[in-house]
Specification:
The protein contains nine helices and four strands, in the order E-H-E-H-E-E-H-H-H-H-H-H-H. It is an alpha+beta fold and 213 residues long. The structure holds glutathione (GSH).
Length: 213
């Protein structure tokens, strides 16, 4: 398998999930600034929508999956014994998917225009407030002392929350959310998360060296 990633983006969620499953997809780095890839492929040919993550499968058609929720859920679904996601078709899964969509729409995608400074002052304030509200909801869930966002087990949802903690880049003040902050540190301490960061840094370095050569 190949996993297309970009630095400090939602592709970290896919890396983390792959690591939890002890999978070793070949990593390809897409540089969002100079629009090149570490293996020289045209990224718009890989994904005409020009975003990561993209998971290229080892099947005959070399199918490619996009969308963080889909890529991470697909990987976890292939390994039900991992417990990283509830079984498809169950009510538990519907509630889990509800959480993933919430993370994608109320958190991940809300950060993007803030990080890119695309908004008016009014838009910035509105979007930051929405993010504080969304993170407060996560903090509230964690207030009962649970270890991870859906309970005691680490899941795909935790990978997604961790990978999209872009509050500092977005100017969103949430340091007062102590349950959330302690939880994020817990996720970050997992070997799978540390490996994701290390592998990403190595790929970025390799890509930069190739461009400079
Ligand atoms: N709907 C997609 C959006 C993915 C997305 O926004 N990817 C960002 C990084 S988090 C990206 O690749 N941006 C490309 C760019 O900034 O040029 C998903 O949920 O995975």
């Amino acid at each position: 398998m190949k996993l297309y990633i970009a630095q400090a983006t939602c592709s970290l969620a896919a890396q983390l999930v792959a690591n939890e499953l002890a999978l070793s997809p070949e990593l390809v780095h897409f540089d969002v600034h100079n629009r090149t890839t570490s293996n020289g492929q045209s990224f718009t040919e890989v994904n005409p929508l020009a975003y990561v993550p993209v998971l290229e499968l080892d099947n005959d058609a070399s199918d490619r999956l996009t969308e963080t929720i889909v890529v991470t859920s697909y990987l976890a679904d292939q390994h039900p014994e991992s417990g990283l996601i509830p079984a498809a078709g169950t009510l538990e899964r519907a509630k889990f998917d509800q959480l993933l969509v919430y993370l994608a729409t109320e958190i991940a995608q809300k950060h993007i225009p803030l990080m890119r400074k695309l908004l008016t002052d009014e838009g910035t304030e509105w979007t930051r407030n929405k993010l504080v509200k969304a993170y407060t909801e996560l903090d509230r869930r964690l207030a009962d002392g649970r270890k991870y966002i859906t309970g005691e087990k680490f899941t795909v949802a935790d990978a997604y929350v961790w990978a999209t903690m872009w509050h500092e880049r977005s100017g969103v003040k949430i340091d007062h959310l102590k349950n959330l902050m302690a939880y994020v540190a817990r996720v970050e301490a997992r070997p799978s998360a540390r490996k994701a960061l290390k592998d990403e840094a190595e790929m970025v370095h390799l890509h930069q060296s190739r461009v400079a050569a």
